[in-house]
Write a structure and sequence with these properties.
The chain is an alpha+beta fold. The protein has a single domain, classed as Umud Fragment, subunit A. Helices cover 17% and strands 29% of the residues. The strands form two sheets. Strands 1, 2, 3, 4, 9, 10, 11 and 12 form an eight-stranded antiparallel β-sheet that branches. Strands 7-6-5-8 form a four-stranded antiparallel β-sheet, with no helix packed on it.
């Protein structure tokens, strides 16, 4: 009889242990970090097709996003699809693409991330005034990116941002923290 109690206690202990691990995993994935995979070439040469990343989901709970950070957000027209882009325009700024280059409040941005001169300014051909919680994002591979210039992506709101790309975990040769600043 006591042997049966011992087996039952052992099984109950394992069950509690497994439930705790599942609960902690859920909390981490929901509030702290999430793995995502880069699909496509829109962020070349910074991120490549097939790169696996950990997304930091907690930073933006304590601070505002910054210009040039690489962020992840859900694509509004397809469930379980996330886009990875770089923040270019900040709340309250005016963004425009003229002659293939980004201008913020009428001044050239002078950033180094675009691989080449943009061929299509999209909706940013005319000045775009960003609201208090709005962000303008671009892929680094500007001529091969669906980003804020495309009406299907458009301007992002703060609530749209899932988090920022934090660590590249695959391929192992590229493992490390992702640089965001210029």
């Amino acid at each position: 009889m006591s042997e049966e109690k011992g087996v039952f206690r052992e099984l109950l202990g394992w069950l509690v242990y497994i439930l705790i691990i599942l609960g902690l995993t859920y909390l981490i994935i929901t509030f702290v970090g999430q793995r995502t995979r880069v699909s496509g070439s829109s962020m070349e040469t910074t991120l490549s097709d097939g790169d696996n990343l950990i997304v930091d989901k907690i930073s933006y709970r304590f601070r505002d996003p910054k210009r040039f950070e690489i962020i992840v957000f859900p694509y509004q027209y397809q469930e379980n699809t996330y886009y990875i882009k770089r923040i270019i325009g900040m709340p309250g700024e005016t963004v425009q693409v003229m002659d293939g280059y980004v201008y913020i409040n009428g001044e050239p941005l002078g950033e180094q991330y675009g691989n080449e001169v943009m061929e299509n300014p999209g909706i940013a051909e005319e000045p775009i005034q960003l609201g208090e919680d709005e962000y303008f994002v671009l892929g680094d591979n500007r001529n091969h990116s669906s980003d804020s210039r495309d009406p299907s992506v458009g301007i992002l709101h703060r609530d749209d941002l899932l988090g920022r790309a934090w660590i590249r975990i695959w391929p192992l040769g590229e493992f490390g923290v992702i640089r965001h600043e210029q």
